């Protein structure tokens, strides 16, 4: 996972297969692909399909004044959550169960229009103001600036106007406009955005707003019903439904290793513009925030679990920023094949005796891991006394830890077990 417990590639020869997909981050979103992994022993293949980075997926390059807010329709009642832990299929006695949920939750789902000014390369020949008689309002901006506009979604979590969305929806935005389903429009202020988890909080000045109810995303299971509400491609208040296809998809699994999220996978149809909108259960509670799709695939979308969103958003509301614990190691799940490759390489500075575990392939110089005494070739067996067998579990344990607080790691080194305390630092920005 990029920006994880690792650093840049070591250039070493053992390279297990890492999946990499071209992924579209929705909303005003960015198309991206698997890139350099910071907690993987190797990076995803550089031959993976890569798409152009589009800030707003189809709305890119619209000039100032071209974006239009689309007022929505009904002013519906405020939603109510029931707390049912497991969603079941709508019963025959209530074939309109999903419609009822939409009536409840729809008023709390908003459209987010974001605009940013970027520098453009305008040839000097087009910067002469006398050319306006030929080009009129279509003449390129003489200062080389262009206003880019994008659209995304969000949902209201407090009656006084706190709104959850994706960080990439408002990334670099100079202006944020929030439109409610009843047609009211407000200027939004970004309280904070965390690129590592792609969570952002917006505040509008209003009162008595409809709000959503939040579920416990740790309890959801594959096969449960899932409902998405948002503004795909600018089509306001669009509703789609499907199921939870899987849970716990790591950022590296889905091709965006620079994030620290274990995603919910769903086959509810989501598209660019859905970013930041809610994924709901059949109780009308939010279980996740829709954020990405695999480009070219059908029925494969990803949402950030709402428990993660709550943890990040509370820090953004309180301080405007988020600290992510960081060790600075590259690690990989040890397999018999990888062990053989390591031990057969005469240039390898270490050998491996264990058959399984989480192998530290490289400790980054001057990192918290290096300062704590971790070494290349160490095998992590447990963190804070809890056994770990996969690198994802190590990453989750580190993410749950606190910056500057001791973290106990049980290792196998030179055939013996030992425990080392490491003090995580804050994830460095790039």
TrEMBL record:
- Indicate yes or no for the key word Protease: yes
Q: Which domain of life is it from?
A: Bacteria
Concerning Pfam families, the annotation shows: PDZ_2, Trypsin_2
Where does the signal peptide begin and end? Answer: none
Q: Which PROSITE patterns match?
A: PDZ (PS50106)
Q: Does the keyword rRNA-binding apply?
A: no
Please, one GO biological process term? proteolysis
Residue ranges of the region described as Disordered: 53-90
InterPro entries from the entry?
HhoA_HhoB_HtrA-like, PDZ, PDZ_sf, Peptidase_S1_PA, Peptidase_S1_PA_chymotrypsin, Peptidase_S1C
- What keywords does the record list, in alphabetical order? Hydrolase, Protease
NCBIfam families, sorted: HhoA_HhoB_HtrA
Q: Which family does it belong to?
A: Belongs to the peptidase S1C family.
Q: What is this protein called?
A: Serine protease
Q: What is the protein's species of origin?
A: Shackletoniella antarctica
């Amino acid at each position: 996972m990029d920006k994880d417990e690792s650093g840049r590639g070591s250039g070493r020869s053992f390279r297990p297969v890492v999946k990499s997909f071209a992924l579209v981050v929705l909303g005003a979103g960015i198309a991206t692909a698997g890139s350099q992994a910071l907690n993987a022993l190797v990076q995803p293949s550089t031959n993976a399909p890569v798409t152009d980075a589009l800030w707003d997926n189809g709305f890119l390059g619209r000039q100032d004044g071209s974006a239009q807010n689309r007022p929505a329709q009904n002013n519906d009642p405020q939603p109510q959550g029931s707390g049912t832990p497991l969603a079941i299929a709508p019963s025959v006695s209530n074939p309109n169960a999903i419609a009822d949920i939409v009536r409840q939750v729809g008023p709390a789902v908003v459209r987010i229009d974001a605009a940013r000014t970027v520098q453009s390369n305008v040839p000097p020949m087009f910067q002469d103001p006398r050319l306006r008689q030929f080009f009129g309002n279509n003449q390129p901006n003489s200062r080389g600036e262009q206003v880019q506009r994008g659209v995304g979604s969000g949902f209201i979590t407090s009656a006084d106007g706190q709104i959850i969305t994706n960080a990439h929806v408002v990334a670099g935005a100079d202006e944020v406009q929030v439109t409610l389903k009843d047609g009211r429009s407000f200027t939004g202020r970004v309280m904070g955005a965390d690129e590592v988890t792609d969570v952002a909080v917006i505040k509008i000045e209003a009162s008595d707003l409809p709000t959503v109810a939040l579920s416990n995303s740790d309890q959801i299971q594959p096969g449960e019903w899932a409902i998405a509400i948002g503004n795909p491609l600018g089509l306001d208040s669009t509703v789609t439904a499907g199921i939870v296809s899987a849970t716990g998809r790591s950022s590296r699994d889905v091709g965006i290793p620079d994030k620290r999220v274990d995603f919910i996978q769903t086959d509810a149809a989501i598209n660019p513009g859905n970013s930041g909108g809610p994924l709901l259960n059949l109780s009308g509670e939010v279980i996740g925030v829709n954020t990405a799709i695999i480009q070219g695939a059908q029925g494969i979308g990803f949402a950030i679990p709402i428990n993660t969103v709550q943890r990040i958003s509370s820090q953004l509301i309180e301080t405007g920023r988020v600290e992510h614990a960081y060790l600075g190691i590259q690690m990989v799940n040890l397999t018999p094949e990888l062990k053989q490759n390591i031990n057969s390489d005469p240039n390898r500075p270490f050998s491996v005796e264990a058959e399984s575990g989480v192998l530290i392939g490289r400790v980054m110089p001057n990192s918290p891991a290096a300062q704590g005494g971790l070494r290349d070739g160490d095998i992590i067996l447990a963190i804070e006394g809890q056994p770990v067998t996969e690198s994802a579990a190590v990453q989750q344990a580190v993410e749950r830890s606190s910056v500057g607080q001791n973290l106990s790691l049980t290792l196998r080194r030179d055939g013996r077990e030992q425990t080392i305390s490491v003090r995580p630092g804050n994830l460095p920005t790039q």
